[in-house]
Amino acid sequence: MGATLNHYTVELTEEQARELERWCREHGFEMREVPHARFGAFGEDVSVVCYRSGKAVVQGRGTRDFVQFVLEPEILKEARLGYELELEPELKLARVGIDESGKGDLFGPLCVAAVYVNESVVRSWQGSGIRDSKRVGSDAAVRELARQVRSTPGCVWEVVVIGNAAYNRCWRAMGNVNRLLAWGHARALENLLARGDRLNPFPVRVISDQFAADPRVVARALMERGRTLELVQRHRAESDPAVAAASLLAREAFLDRLARLSQRWGVRLPRGAGAEAREALRQLVQKHGAGVCVEVTKLHFRTVSEVLSELRLPMPDPGGAGPGRSGGFGGEGGDGGWGLFGRAGGGRAD
């Protein structure tokens, strides 16, 4: 997106320097001593050095994302680099961004959001802090930014939720999470494009992260309306504001449904797939039996088979079938009242 930015310099106040150092420490940057510097912070693709003079230098291939999604909204509280509409004409194009949430989480559904933007929408987001949900520090902030997305005049969105029972049936039929994810992208896009009278002007392209090694996985999944758009898949697609907005709506939908599952089954279900999730699964199975795994987990995660093996319980059968030719799922419900897949919502702010 636009020209490469590998170096950025800005003057910080004392308070801003402290905030930047705190942010880097909290987000796992390696802190090192640098001559004449207050601190040096080194991440995977970006480094930040804050000098005692107040000058901060950001370097590396991740410079643009760090400035746009961290430095401006979290530290400076204003957009200086911003979306640079005048320098980046492609940001003026009407387009759809797609992103998902829940793929790497043991508990909860797979949520896919598609968001339509045009030039006026992107301009209105300049300096708003709307950015990739993975770069947002709290669930409350995700919800607030998602609210801003939904309330933006001209912005149109769709969210598709694939509940756990449906996910597990589909996984068994497909045997590949990327094929299932591609179907979710295609379904969300098709639902959005069906509301063409609200898309002004009509989008010329759709942008998503390249999550599959073979880009044809998504291209083949596109449905009738989706095939009329230019499909752009790229790594770090969330640097585009349309994809960043989609990531926020997908994350919000995932958080809402994870909370509902926790309430329904009486066990707090954490995000992720680490030790905390493993212990929650053990409690859940001891309380409700192995069958609950179909309703709340993604069965192909190794943690499920390991916990069931430790408890000497068999792997439950997800039953059912995968997506049909019409783009829906065969079989009956079992997703905690949400059906096989559902629209978490869609709309336009006028």
Commentary on this structure:
With 350 residues, the protein is of the alpha+beta class. It has 2 domains: 7-76, 2-Layer Sandwich (TATA-Binding Protein), CATH 3.30.310; 89-350, Ribonuclease H-like superfamily/Ribonuclease H (Nucleotidyltransferase, domain 5, 2-Layer Sandwich). It contains 11 helices and 11 strands. It has helices spanning 14-26, 63-76, 119-125, 139-150, 164-174, 177-193, 216-221, 241-265, 275-288, 292-296, 302-310; strands at residues 7-11, 30-32, 37-42, 47-51, 55-59, 95-101, 110-117, 156-162, 205-209, 230-234, 341-348. The strands form 2 sheets. Strands 10-9-6-7-8-11 form a 6-stranded mixed beta sheet. A 5-stranded antiparallel beta sheet has the order 1-5-4-3-2, covered by helices on one side. Helix 7 links the parallel strand 9 (205-209) and strand 10 (230-234).
**What's the main sheet like?**
6 strands, mixed
CATH architecture of the largest domain: 2-Layer Sandwich
Number of domains: 2
| Total of helices | 11
Proportion of residues in extended strands? 15-25%
Q: What is the fold's blueprint, element by element?
A:
Blueprint lengths: L6 E5 L2 H13 L3 E3 L4 E6 L4 E5 L3 E5 L3 H14 L18 E7 L8 E8 L1 H7 L13 H12 L5 E7 L1 H11 L2 H17 L11 E5 L6 H6 L8 E5 L6 H25 L9 H14 L3 H5 L5 H9 L30 E8 L2
Parallel strand pairs: 6-9, 9-10
Antiparallel strand pairs: 1-5, 2-3, 3-4, 4-5, 6-7, 7-8, 8-11
Helix pairs in contact: 1-2, 4-8, 9-11
Short description:
This protein is α+β, with helices and mostly antiparallel strands. Helices cover 38% and strands 18% of the residues.
